[in-house]
């Protein structure tokens, strides 16, 4: 988009930028973009639906509360539904990441929808956003589940202050048992239904007690099962990959090497 009229309204997933990467996970849209409209040509406009913006490169001007007007790289901004502003880049050499939030998620989060306007978020939320940027760049068979879980955690972090409960709830053990038993990568909505809690609540509590997202835990559980099968069975590497829920042997090899810095075949030889 090369020009912009005053009063323009942007629908879900639309920004003044050219996309380099677009992913979709659990109803969220993840985009890596470059600006396309010069500062002098960009007027006030409205975003129909909620979204997050993270500055990856360049100079960005914002009216969101909570920080400097000219943002540093790494700044993360939440814009609620109906945000009207003139946030813009100085020049066209910037890069930014956006997370467009599905309306169904916002409808369940009253505190986020009516929090008083756009705001810049803190370190914890930025960590989730960086994880999403990284997942976009290495998208694999189960990345939609991982990204959906992390996006839900980012949403949860934006709507609530840190909770002080120290004891894990009873449903958390059920979640862990289910993740250990199920093959593949469950989406967070399915896991929340199993546990009888809301996905946003599940994501926040799971991260607080386990230090990772449910899909990340499921990845590690699959790798632990695979390691046991490599040690204790004569099944081929391809058969083990299938048993453990991987799309194919190459996907299994990549994740195994990423986690343990050794191939499954080499690990098997060392374990004999």
From TrEMBL:
PANTHER family tied to this protein: HTH-TYPE TRANSCRIPTIONAL ACTIVATOR RHAS-RELATED (PTHR46796)
Source species, domain of life: Bacteria
Keyword check for Transcription: yes
Record keywords, A-Z: DNA-binding, Transcription, Transcription regulation
Domain HTH araC/xylS-type stretches: 188-270
SMART domains: HTH_ARAC
Annotated source species: Luteimonas galliterrae
A Pfam family this chain is assigned to: HTH_18
This protein's record includes keyword DNA-binding: yes
SUPFAM superfamilies, A to Z: Homeodomain-like, RmlC-like cupins
Name the UniProt record assigns to this protein: AraC family transcriptional regulator
């Amino acid at each position: 988009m090369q020009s912009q009229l005053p009063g323009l309204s942007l629908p879900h997933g639309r920004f003044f930028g050219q996309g380099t990467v677009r992913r979709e996970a659990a109803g969220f849209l993840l985009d890596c973009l470059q600006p396309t409209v010069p500062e002098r040509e960009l007027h006030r406009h409205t975003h129909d639906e909620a979204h997050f913006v993270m500055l990856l490169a360049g100079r960005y001007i914002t009216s969101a509360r909570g920080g400097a007007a000219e943002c540093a790289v790494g700044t993360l901004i939440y814009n609620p539904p109906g945000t009207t502003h003139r946030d813009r880049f100085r020049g066209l050499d910037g890069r930014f990441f956006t997370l467009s939030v599905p309306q169904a998620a916002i409808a369940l989060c009253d505190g986020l929808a009516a929090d008083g306007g756009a705001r810049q978020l803190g370190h914890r939320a930025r960590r989730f956003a960086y994880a999403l940027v990284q997942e976009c760049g290495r998208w694999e068979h189960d990345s939609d589940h991982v990204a959906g879980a992390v996006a839900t955690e980012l949403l949860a972090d934006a709507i609530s202050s840190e909770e002080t409960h120290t004891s894990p709830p009873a449903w958390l053990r059920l979640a862990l048992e289910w993740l250990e038993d199920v093959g593949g990568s469950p989406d967070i909505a399915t896991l929340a239904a199993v546990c009888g809690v809301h996905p946003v609540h599940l994501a926040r509590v799971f991260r607080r007690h386990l230090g990772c997202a449910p899909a990340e835990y499921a990845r590690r559980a699959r790798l632990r099962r695979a390691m046991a099968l490599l040690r204790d069975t004569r099944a081929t590497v391809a058969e083990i990959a299938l048993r453990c829920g991987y799309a194919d042997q190459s996907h299994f090899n990549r994740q195994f090497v990423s986690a343990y810095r050794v191939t499954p075949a080499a690990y098997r030889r060392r374990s004999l």
